[in-house]
Amino acid sequence: MPVTKMPDGLSEEITPGHPLIHLLQIKTKIFITDLMGFVRKLKHHPSALIGALLIIFFLVVAFFAPAVAPHDPFTGELSERLVAPSWLEGGSSQYVLGTDQQGRDLLSRIIYGARISLWVGFISVTISVLIGTLLGAAAGYFRGKLDIFLSRTADLLLAFPFLIFAVAVMSFLGPGLINLILALTFKGWVEFFRLVRGEMLSEKTKEYVEAAKANGQSNLRIILSEVLPNIIHTIIVLATLRMGFFIIMEASLSFLGLGIQPPDPAWGSMVNEGRQFMLNAWWLSTFPGAAILVLVLSINLFGEGLRDILDPRLKTE
Amino acid sequence: MKSIKILERLLAAIPIMIGVAVLVFLFVRLTPGDPVDLMMGSAGSVSQEEVQALQEEFNLDKPLHTQLYLFLKNVARGDLGDSFTQREPVTNIIAGALPATIELAFGAAFFAVLFAIPIGVYSAVKQNSITDRLSMAFSFLGISMPAFWFGIILIIVFGVKLGWLPISGRLDYGFNFPSVTGLYLIDTVLARDWPAFKNAVLHLILPSIALGMQLLAILARVTRSSMLEVLRQDYVTLARAKGLREFIVIVKHALRNALIPTITVLGIQIGVLLGGNMIIETVFAWPGLGRLAVDSIFSRDFPLIQGVVMIYAFTYVIANLIVDILYTYINPKITL
């Protein structure tokens, strides 16, 4: 299939049978075959499959939270405060995981909390990937002063332990969802930058890039349509593994009281609130923390599976 | 040759440290709003003189580049300013909190290494056995676990339900021994105060486990995989062919070489210990640097925040530097 030159502007009418449509069809077919192949491989990788299924479960629960949650997560009956989980003495079948200090249903709050964790994890990883990939590709491809500047900035940011840096940023920005995402991405892009820059440096010397250059393709086009497709798998694997990490960081910041603020049901702040009732209501801290553990565990299981399937090269351990 | 390379490394760390100081300086200056208002936010009613004194103290009446120059000059001299809340030089406050953090970090690293290496070695030797699979599943759990939650679970189980171990602070009231190093385990030994030593050890156990668990998990995985690699090498086969006992082969021939990646990872993961101690110190009311950082943020004590963040970053840079240098001695094949 010869690659047709893109028309300048959209003056040319695109009709069925147009080479561009044909190309698109082929690309779609390749994508679907790839996807099917991936799903088939996933079946033979039990831990990754379990991870994937659990992630889907969390996504469904988070998306349909209003329908799934048995109670309102924000209001509770004070007369029903600190009710034990249903299987314990003093428990009520109405509140499966018990209630908190304000009589709110713990299960419902955990269900709504999944939204925050998934959302923060997804958005901050996405932004980090976009910024890191863009800057990494530019630095690795063009080198020069831009590369020196960006690489030094990355080195500087790497001098801070992640949580310390995020805490410092949050202390100046103040708490809240947007600030939380900002604090995570401020440093989060560096890993992707370093990955993409390194890959770009080695890909750049390969023959297909030389060929594309000789062909007169623009730099932007070479980066986007020649090199990036070759390293996208590596980026996806790293992004998945980082998502679990970002979720733990969000939970840690919320736990410290610097992230999502009560009454919003972030898992980290729920663990923190429950700490005061550790002596007589152990479930308040235990279950939201267990939810973090299971979500991060499934993301990591899936991520490691992805690495084995998509990018066996990365398997260094 | 080697010493020149090491010197180069040391010199390369200097711009990073200056960069850290500049970034920390900019943090406060770039925060929206007047720094004085921010700093005075918690102090309630403030007189005009106090505002002026503050402006002078932080050189806020001078242009930004002069401010930066003066700030860097002070940092280079080891002067990080005075804390708002404690009215004491920041360096003194940090120096007071540092021993607690160092003791906890060593406790965590000790716990992690103590268990990680045997687990990793055993898993590699018995590859794919049930024990191997279980310990790898366990280490995967350790990596995915939020440290603050694990700490709380430890408190609930061993402190509250079983009542075996103390759950907060470094020492119970009523012990008295001279402070020499600030590290209680050493100070109590120097004073031959054994009840206090025992008390300090007991206080150290749960926080060390909570802080060290993730490190344990990572180290066990690394040790296992590098052991697996080493066990396939010719010299291990040779050692076996010579008829040496399997234990000798594993420990003397294989493990020595397999430990290189473990040590590297241990160095790299010092960052995990540093970041994690904020969380663990909060959970266990441990009076170290991490607690200080969190407290200073809530009291909006900006000089203290600046100082603590800078110390964290400096420690991190220096730790990585030491690992780099040590690495060349352990593995002569690597050049810096």
Summarize the structure.
With 317 residues, chain A is mostly helical. Chain A has 11 helices and no strands.
Give a structural overview.
The complex is a heterodimer of chains A (317) and B (336). Chain A is mainly alpha-helical and 317 residues long. Chain A has a single domain (81-314), classed as MetI-like fold (Orthogonal Bundle), CATH 1.10.3720.10. Chain A is built from eleven helices and no strands. In chain A, helix 4 (106-142) runs parallel beside helix 11. Chain A is globular and about 75 Å long. Chain B is 75% helix and 0% strand. Chain B has helices at 2-30, 35-40, 48-57, 64-76, 90-125, 130-144, 147-161, 184-190, 194-231, 234-241, 246-268, 270-283, 289-298, 302-330. In chain B, helix 7 (147-161) crosses helix 9 (194-231) and helix 13 (289-298) packs antiparallel against helix 14 (302-330). Chain B is globular and about 85 Å long. Chains A and B meet through helix 5, helix 6, helix 9, helix 10 and helix 11 of A and helix 1, helix 6, helix 7, helix 9 and helix 12 of B.
Jot down its keywords.
A: 317 residues, MetI-like fold, globular, B: 336 residues
Give the class-level CATH name of chain A: Mainly Alpha
> What radius of gyration of chain B results from the CA coordinates?
24 Å
Average pLDDT across residues of chain A? 85
Q: What is the CATH topology of chain A?
A: MetI-like fold
Helical content of chain A stands at 55-70%
Structural class of chain B: mainly alpha
Put simply, the count of helices of chain A is 11
Distance between the termini of chain A: 39 Å
**Which shape of chain B, going by the Cα principal axes?**
globular
Note the total helix count of chain B.
14
The portion of residues forming beta strands of chain B comes to under 5%
Question: What is the CATH superfamily label of chain A?
Answer: MetI-like
Weakly predicted, low-confidence segments of chain A: 1-7
